[in-house]
Design goal:
Length: 281
């Protein structure tokens, strides 16, 4: 089983934008997560950038070199960089980089990503065969993801956290329509994560089911990858609780679908080893 979205950070490094009054304002490192992964029978993880610097890229790549359960790193990249080809070449040469995630001002708005001037950067990312994760904070901006996908059909795009629906507010209709537009783009896959963080405190399987069902219907298991989004997850639930709830939600996918969700899609899209296939061999 692969957890396709985990963050690590070390506050003293100085480039993380987490507010000092946040419960997340402390170090989160592999040694803390490792026993939880073992208990959940997670074979490997994908580490996703948590700061918009190349210094953080070096930190996460270094972690991947030191911890065998890190299958790959999704690095930060600036698609407007005049040296983007060289930066991609350097990052890919490490053998640990499997994708990228552009972030600007914590992506409180992703309107900046629709700038036509970024087309060259997106083409370079696509040419390198790197999937591009998109984090949105405002679900009303989901149509921009569909626009980017249509304008860049050769670019593999991964929508993080199901597009962050407002589950606590019960706003499902517009989110569902916008997700339909994104799912109609064959170059987009989606991370099945983040739902508990968007729900009211104490939410359980039944509260998430309408949203999960729509995600499953739109993308199908072959275009979905399971993820925890640890440690932000810890603000809503522990690792084991999200794994239990997501497993209950995914029973409708059947055995083959669950295999795709929990390892197959991440293996194919990120180009990492499939622990399920190795176990069968």
């Amino acid at each position: 089983m692969i957890d396709a979205h985990v963050h690590f950070w070390r506050i003293a490094r100085g480039d993380n934008s987490i507010r000092s009054d946040s419960p997340l304002y402390r170090d989160y490192e592999p040694a803390e997560l490792a026993p939880q992964l073992a208990a959940a029978r997670i074979d490997s993880i994908v580490v996703v950038q948590a700061a918009a610097t190349h210094a953080e890229n070096l930190y996460t790549i270094g972690l991947a070199r030191l911890h065998h359960f890190i299958a790959g790193v999704v690095v930060w990249i600036d698609p407007s960089s005049p040296a983007i080809e060289e930066e991609i070449a350097a990052l890919r040469s490490t053998g640990m980089v499997v994708g990228c995630r552009p972030i600007r001002d914590d992506n409180l708005s992703i309107a900046w990503m629709a700038d036509p001037g970024l087309r060259r950067g997106y083409e370079a990312i696509a040419l390198a065969g790197m999937p591009l994760d998109i984090l949105i904070e405002d679900p009303d901006e989901l149509p921009l993801v569909a626009l980017l996908a249509r304008e860049n059909p050769s670019l593999s795009i991964i929508l993080d956290h199901c597009g962050k629906p407002d589950i606590a507010g019960g706003r499902i209709a517009q989110w569902a329509r916008d997700l339909d537009l994104i799912a109609a783009c064959p170059n987009v896959t989606c991370k099945f994560s983040g739902l508990l963080s968007r729900a009211a405190p104490g939410a359980d399987t039944a509260d998430l089911e309408p949203y999960a069902s729509h995600v499953f219907a739109d993308f199908g298991a072959s275009r979905l990858m399971w993820a925890s989004d640890w440690p932000p997850l810890t603000l809503a639930a522990d690792y084991a609780r999200w794994q239990r709830i997501s497993a209950e939600l995914a029973t409708c996918l059947g055995i083959d679908g669950i295999t795709s969700l929990t390892s197959g899609t991440a293996t194919r899209v990120y180009g990492i080893k499939d622990p399920a296939a190795e176990e069968r061999a």
